[in-house]
Structures are given as structure tokens and as C-alpha cells.
Amino acid sequence: MSPYLQVFIGSFLLSIVHALIPSHWLPLVAIGKAEKWSSSETTTVAIITAVSHTFSTVVIGIIVGLVGYKLSETYHYITHYIAPVILILLGLIYLILEYRHSKIKTAHNHHHVDIDGIVKNKKSKRSIIITLSIAMFFSPCLEIEVYYFTASRLGWMGIGIVSTVYFFVTVIGIVSLVYLASRGVQKLKWHFLEHHEKMISGVILILVGLLAFFVDF
């Protein structure tokens, strides 16, 4: 398998799962309904917040990638062995957290954004957008950050592939889901994804880590 194709597949899998997680788009739908926004208004806010979220992740990822690239020039084993191991360990941690969460059996929804607080405070649309953007900006995707370290073996090309795939897949995914839900098209129950996001992310991280470990660049 081409190393570039490997990085593309890994980036795509992590990005699509990341975009599907309800905590990234369901709060936008809930706030839009509470504020009686039109479908176009909710979609516009989704674009703004999704770009804010992905921008911060990409910036941090590029820094992580550059560090990984510098290390790979001298210590090849770090990016070839340690980075995939980190991905696998992170996936196992997510699975453990999922197991502990299922034992506790919490009934509440877990969102990145305080929906009730925003709605109760009766903020203006501008204030809501700023609040959502800041909240999403300061919640970068940890999974993809670690993958930057793995992809850095390919230098700027690897970093560029991860950045491009993650940005477009995540933004398009979040915006599409918000649009469908706000239009009433999406009638699916998202409880499984919402309450098992750690398990899904953990499985994907382990698979991507194994792919990076056994397929040499």
C-alpha cells in the first residue's frame, strides 16, 4: 500500500468518525430549534463553528507534525514504532473509559457545549455564535493530533494530507448533519453514537494504529 494512501485512509476514518459524533453537531441543532432559527441560519452557524473547531485542530496538528518530522530525521523508530503504539494505547484508554461509562450508566447527554446555559441566558444570535465558536475552538480533536505524529514521517506531504482531509471531511460532515437534522430529514436515533462515542473512537484508533505499525513507509 502506498504510504500516502495509508495516511489518507487513516485521516479519512478518524475524520468521518469525528464528524459523526453527535456531541459535535447535535448541540447546534438543539440551539437552533430553541432559538427558532431557520434551516439556513442553523447551517450557517454550523459552518462557522465547524471551521473554528477544525482550524484550531489543524494548527496544533501542524506543530505536532513538525516536531514529529524533526524527530524522524534522527530517531526513525519514534515515528515508526512509538507513534502507532500511542494510537493503539489511546484507543485502549477510550475502550476502558467506555466500559467504565457503561457501568455507571449515566442517563444524561454529554455535549461539548452548555446548551441549557446558552438558551436560558437568552443571548443574542451574535453572542451565541461567538460562544459556540470559542467552545469548539478550544476543544481540538486529540485523535487526529496523535495521527499527525505518525503522518509526519512523510514530511510536509503527510502533514498536508492529514490537514486537508480532516478539514474538509469534518466541516462537510458536521454541516451536512446539522442541515439534515434542522430540515427534519434526519429521523435516526443517535443515542448509540452519543453514548458509545469512546468505544467507536477507540476501535478506529486501534485499527489506524495497527495499520501504521504493520505497513512501513
Describe the structure.
About 3% of the residues have low confidence. This protein has one domain. 79% of the residues lie in helices and 0% in strands. Helix 1 packs antiparallel against helix 7, helix 4 runs antiparallel to helix 7 and helix 7 runs antiparallel to helix 8. It is mainly alpha-helical and 217 residues long.
Describe the SSE topology.
Elements (H helix, E strand, L loop, with lengths): L2 H18 L5 H9 L4 H36 L1 H29 L10 H6 L4 H13 L4 H10 L4 H27 L8 H5 L1 H18 L3
Helix pairs in contact: 1-7, 1-8, 1-10, 2-8, 3-4, 3-6, 3-7, 3-8, 4-7, 4-10, 7-8
Global Rg: 18 Å
- Strand proportion, as a percent range, falls in under 5%
Q: Helix fraction?
A: over 70%
Measure the end-to-end span: 9 Å
Kindly give the count of domains. 1
Class per helix and strand makeup: mainly alpha
Biggest sheet, in brief? Answer: none
SSE pattern, N- to C-terminal: HHHHHHHHHH
Number of strand elements: 0
Which regions are unreliable across 5 or more consecutive residues at pLDDT < 50?
A: 105-111
List keywords for this structure.
217 residues, globular, mainly alpha, single chain
Can you give me a brief rundown of this structure?
By secondary structure, the protein is mostly helical.
